[in-house]
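From the pipeline queue, job 12 of 40. The input is one protein chain; the requested action is below.

Action: predict structure.
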Amino acid sequence: MHHMSPEYKVAYYVRVSREEQAKGYSPDGQKSTLENWLKETGWRWVKTYQDEVSGKNTERERFQEMLTDAKNGLFNGICMFDNDRFSRSTKDLLNVMDDLLTYGVKLHIYNLRHIDIYSEQGRFILTNFAAFSEFFRGQLASKIRVGVKQKMKNEWFGQAPYGYTIISDIIGNRKKNTRLIENAEEQNILTLMKQLKGEEKSYIEIANYLNENRIPTRLKREGNKCSWYPSTVRNILVREEYKHYGKQEKVISPIDQTKGNQSSEQPV
């Protein structure tokens, strides 16, 4: 349970959640919660580790630095807001938890603070809590992909996601067969975003790169003044990751725009 000695040293682990920032998982929000918690425990903070990449695996720069520092005895415990900040994989969470224990380092999870996760019952609760979260995320992503695929088999409704343009056939003065086609210019920019994200650039760094290199946003190409923002980059990449628009059968080649009597729409 809680160690009240001021000699009990802890580190904070903070990870930015792309999908959940709006629900209170911002870096500052996490740090503030942990700082207030520390005032109650009497523990002593020594270092904060912050990653801005996905938690799907443990290959994160600051995460690995933290494990090395744990092995070298820099602190006695690691505090985090919830288990998802540490890892989105139940297996990774439990394995790293056991590895840290061999170094004499324990995990302290704010949203499970009333549970001793190192007791038999507490570990059972943590395992089920993490497994449920992992299952729910997988089910949500699957439902989104199925829903988008079904839309594309019929007709597309709503705005075009970044990287695509909406076109329709004009039949009897009415729009029919509304669907998506790839927008070549936006696809090139989307590929660049993915490449930068693959290099573990943060959303802020990607937005700055696009602005510094005068790469236009969709709105700017239409004559409006508009810059790239980290939230815009995040939304585009998260949508692309979960919906896989480019792999669905109703996304057709840009060359098809020249066939037949068609209407092209590009929403603002």
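Job complete. The CA atoms of residues 62 and 198 lie 16 Å apart.
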